[in-house]
Structure formats: C-alpha cells, structure tokens
Amino acid sequence: MLTNEEKSAIHEFFASKGLPTGRALTFSDVSLPENYSDIRSRSEVFNFETRLSQNLNLSIPIVSANMESVTGLELAVALEREGGLAFPPQSLPIEERVELITRISRADSALIDEPLTTKPNTALEDAKKQMSQFGVRSLIVIDKNKKPVGILSKRDWLYEEKDGKSVGDLMSKKLIVAALGIDFKKAGELLRKNKIEKLPLVDKSGKLAGLITANGLFYKSRYPRATRDDKGRFLRAGSIGVGQTFTAKHLREVEAQIKNGVSILLIDTARAYSVNTEEAIKKIKKEFPKLPLVVGNVSTAEGAKFLFEIGADIVKVGQGPGFVCRTREVGVGVPQLTAVAECAVIAGRYKKTVIADGGIKNPGDLAKALIVGARAVMLGNLLVRARESASPMFVDEDNRPVKNYTGSASFAAQLARYRRGDLKSIRRPEGVTQVVPVTGTIHEIVDDLLRGLASTMAYLGVKNLGELRDKGRFIEQTAAGHFEGVKKA
Ligand code: XMP
Q1: Which of 27, 186, 272, 472 could be disulfide-bonded to 365 (CB atoms 3.0-4.6 Å)?
Q2: DSSP bridge partners of 392
C-alpha cells in the first residue's frame, strides 16, 4: 500500500513532466518538446555518467539483459569496455555462470590473482588448448616449486609448424618479476622500462602469486569509459533466480559467485512482487548483508516499494514491454514509461534507484526512460543484434547475417532448461523467438545510441544525465502523431 505522501509525490512528478495519472503510457505515446539550448554542437555532449547505487557509477546508462541469447563472454567484455555493465543469465547452470564470471574477471585485467600457468614439460598442443579455452594469449611457466621460470606467448609458437615441442623448448626465459603488493604506478614503470607486457608477481619464497598485465594497466587510454574495479578488472555482476522456494542450493550459488568476485547480485524473476522474492531477499540479506541487490521485475509503485522495503538497492522495472515478451498476453503489466516513472518516484524516496528493462528501440526511448528517472536501461533487443552477443550468427535466405533472439520464457528457452534438468515442467510460454538482423559490433551499436542520446540532450539544452532528468518533459502524442515521426510516405 502506498501512503498518501507517496501518492501525491507520484502525482506531482507526473504533473511536472506532463504525464497523465490514471492512464498508462509508453515511449511512443510521448514526444519531447525542445528547450532553449546553449549547446552549439552535439559534440559538446559526451558526459553520460550515471549513479546506479551508492558505490556503483557507470560511464554510460546501459546494462545487458541477463538472457542466454544476449549475454556471454564476448558481449560482456565488449559492453564493459564501452562503460556498461553485463548481467549473466541466471538460467545458466551455476558452473557455467561461475565460469563466465571468472572469464570476465580475467579478460583485459590489470591484476590477475591466480594467473594461468603451465609446466616446462607440457606439450605445446596442450598449452595451446588451455589458452584457447580461457581466451588468453600467454601462460606463465612455473617449475615444480611454483617458481616462475618463463613465459609462453603467442609469438613463441606462432611460427612452429608442428605441435610436437614442449613448452620449455619454446618459452621466453627472460623474466622480470616483482614482489606481490607492488603498486600499479611502480609496476607500470617496470613494464615501460623493460618494454614487456607481463609482470609476474612472487611472494616472499619466490612462488608465483599474481600477474600484472600492460594491456590491463594502461587500459584507460584505450577504453576511457571502461567499467573496472580497483584492481583494474571488469566489474562483475552475479545473478540468481528465486524458484518456488529459495533453498540452501540457491544460497550456495550466490556464495560461489561472490567467491569469484561478484560485487552486485541480480535477483531475477518475472513476478518479483511475490512471496518467493521476499523469501529470497531475506535469506540473501541475512547471509550476505553487504551485497548490493538488483531485484526485479515489477511494474507498479507498490511492487517497487515492497522490494525497497525488504532490502533491494536497485529495482528492475518492466513487465511485458520487451521485443520478445508476451507477458501482456495474460493481461498483466503496465505500459513502460508510466511503470518506470512511478517506480522511480518511489526509489527517490528511499534514496534508491531503478533500471528500465525492456522495450528500448532507439535513443529517444533511452532518453525518455532516463527522464522519468531510470538510472540505466537494460537492453536485449538492441544488443542481441551485435556480432558479440551470445546467440550464434547464421545467414537468412537472402544471405544476410542474422541471429535468433529467444525470450527467456519462450517455449524454446524453457525446453532447453527442461532438457538440462533445470526445469520440472514447461509453463505456457510468455515469450517468443525472433530472427533479428546483425547490425554491427557492440561498439557501433552503443556509439549509435550515445550519439543519438547526445542529440536529444542538445535539443533539450542539457549536458549531463542529471540535467536531462530535471529539464526533460513530455507532450502526449496520438498514434497519428507518432506515425508522422517514423514513417514518411
Ligand atoms: P528488449 O526489448 O530490450 O527487452 O528485448 C529485454 C527484456 O525482455 C524481458 N524478457 C522477457 N519478457 N517474456 C517476457 O515477458 C520473455 O520470454 C522474456 N525474455 C526476456 C527481460 O526483462 C529482458 O531484460
């Protein structure tokens, strides 16, 4: 139940934005009237920083949908390079989720706690297999006492015609090591001075205890917006479903992800305003009180309030707006602009935040979601079209590259989980699979969205997302008005 103050806060906010109450709207129901702008060129707008929670800032307001066809290793790395955040699918078996998280943490990392190693007598063939399995380009070679004795890099074996040789025959023995605990500045100087890419770290007894990589250390110059932690690694989010009852097995899955460096957890279910989610949040909070929680999905102020009250830090909003969603077939859900706006007002009162999940088709939708208070948008449809998304690419009958975009509650997704033994029975599907064109790389797709957002911001005369939230307001439009803007006969 909302209090009278909460209800009037919603009314006031809606009135200030030009939104009706008692009637729900979605993105294309509104347009954005211009404001006087002192921005001479769109290129003056480049700050898209957003505060997702107290300790979590992102350089861009974009997170990936935790869907199996969307978020895998390649997409996660590419998106976090751009400044977004990747959420692993909670439907993946826990071993695969943990492996994904581990591989994200290793990719382009400045400091690796447990570097991948090999031994001098290992066959080159096996070392190559290990490198390709983990997506790395070199291995530290250690002796039987775990002391580093060499490095095997791609250039050491690139011109080897046959695989018969052993690691010891090919590795580079010129090794510069540093003591564990060396600060990043000094490590950078060592790497530069010696023109090397890898700096193995050793403990007091000379055993290998870590690795600093030049690629990871000098990352900001290549990817200034990248989402990194204080050890120079990509930030890792975890994910968990809630099931019919939240069991000890679920808690162990949360623990396994925390052990692998997850610093924020998504609790994801189609019906988060529920006893199941309540149980999950309470149990997780009891065991891991400091772990920030993103919880969803809901689409009403009451649902958001419920989740904030019991410990959610960020609420994910959206029931049915997504490209492959069919939840509205059962009659439930609130058109997305209104849903996000209501939940964001409640979030503000708890000093918490919301993510708008689903239905974003272009930069205008992104801007509208941010104006009603979302701190980020979750994207499936736009990101699955990237070369790096987890869905395999194939060609359609016209020879164009395409991918399958599979709704998490679709028959296909449920069947896959049923066959793996992760689902007891198949429910009536609330999602579908669609074939979508491949439109570019993550960099190109994100860049297009951000350049569009910069344009929206230039029209509205704002230079950051805080100003966008303050100054953006809406004018309702008819279906004909919307049509006028998108289809030109
Ligand atoms: P977009 O529009 O970006 O939306 O593709 C992504 C979001 O869609 C949700 N989702 C589903 N919703 N049935 C639903 O009703 C489904 O099968 C389904 N699969 C994904 C999800 O919230 C995702 O982030």
Answers
A1: 27
A2: none
